Structure formats: C-alpha cells, structure tokens
Amino acid sequence: MTWQSPINIPHGVIHGTPDVDTNGKLFIGGEDLVGTQFWCIRSSNAQIGSQTPVFEQVTQVNLGGVRAGGNVNPGGLTAQIFLAVDRSGGPTNNNVYMMCSVRPPSYSTGTDVMIARSTDGGATFAAPVKVNDDATTNKWHWFGTFSVAPNGRLDAVWYDTRNAGGQSSVSVVLFLQHRCRFYVVAERPCKRSI
C-alpha cells in the first residue's frame, strides 16, 4: 500500500470532520488556525486515486459564535466542528450540515449548540439555528455532535448545564429533528458531577 504525500488544506482547517456525498465529493468542515472562522471545504476529485485532491470550493460558514474553552473543560476544548452530508436519497439528499458548540457574541460564558445547513453542495449556508431549546444564557451546552439518519433525520446529542444551579451539575441531552424542528427526546442527569 502506498500513500500520497500530505497536501495543504485551505485555511489549514483544524478540529473538524470530513464526509462524502453521494457523488463522491469530499467535504471537510473545520476552523482556521486562528480559531475565529468556520469553513466548509470541498474537493470533487479526492475519490480519484491517481489525482492529487484539489479543493475547488471554500466557503466561510457562520455558526453564530466562536468555539470557546471554559470551566467545564478547563484544560481543553468544549467543542469540535462536525460536518455531515445527507445520503438518504430523499428530498434532503446531499444537504451539507455543520454543527458546533459556540459562544454567541452576547454571552460572557457558556455555549449554545448551533447548526447551519447548505442545500447547494456547500456553496452557501443558511443562517445558523440554535439547537438547544432552553432560554438560558451563559450555560454550557458542550461537546455537541450529530449524525444524519438513513431517512435524512438529524440526531444531535451534547452535555448540558441548563438545569444546574451552578456549573457543576451536568445532563446529557438527545434531540431529534423532524420537519425542521428539534425535539428533546431524553435528558438524563450524569451520575458523576464535575
């Protein structure tokens, strides 16, 4: 087995994930090395082993804030940038989604789970949508992740301090998306506080 030499990815994106659409296009979601901008980067030829991948589309994505560290994980990240492509074969097929726990500009601490959707192969993204449905501010909704189910439904999960009197009580929240709305399916307190 042989490997290609490493190549540079535009903006040196980090802390993100890749996915592939039904046409074999590679998408990489992440943030730049400065940690202030989110990007969706696409290669249409990455699936061709004899070619060096070319990243022909680079799109800045607004996720409603910045990825931030904090007291829930004082020595590390509170989020990774997740990208997923719908391969359901249905009406949302090849939609590209990006999600991250971010600190909105109006918060002094805490994060919200935000998601943005592209319906045109990552060329543009709609305004971000807050996934956690609580009205609290400055609470932590962190380590959010999601996937696209085989029927196109979006499933998201994250840690959450919305019901905590302080910042040391944590719940795990599972949301399901149905017809553009997110619903709390389960909220389960963790057995161990931080």
Structural class: mainly beta
Characterize the largest beta sheet: strand count, sense, and whether it forms a barrel: 4 strands, antiparallel
> How many strand units?
12
Low-confidence stretches: 178-194
Helix content: under 10%
Radius of gyration: 17 Å
Number of helices: 0
Alpha-carbon distance between the termini?
45 Å
| Molecular shape | globular
**Order of strands across the widest beta sheet?**
1-2-3-4
Whole-number mean pLDDT:
84
Strand content: 35-45%
Instruction: Name the helix and strand elements from N-terminus to C-terminus, one letter apiece.
Output: EEEEEEEEEEEE
Commentary on this structure:
With 194 residues, the chain is mainly β. Helices cover 0% and strands 40% of the residues. The chain is globular.
Write the layout of secondary structure elements.
Blueprint: E1 14-20, E2 26-31, E3 38-43, E4 55-61, E5 82-85, E6 96-102, E7 112-118, E8 129-130, E9 141-148, E10 154-160, E11 171-178, E12 181-189
Antiparallel strand pairs: 1-2, 2-3, 3-4, 5-6, 6-7, 7-8, 9-10, 10-11, 11-12
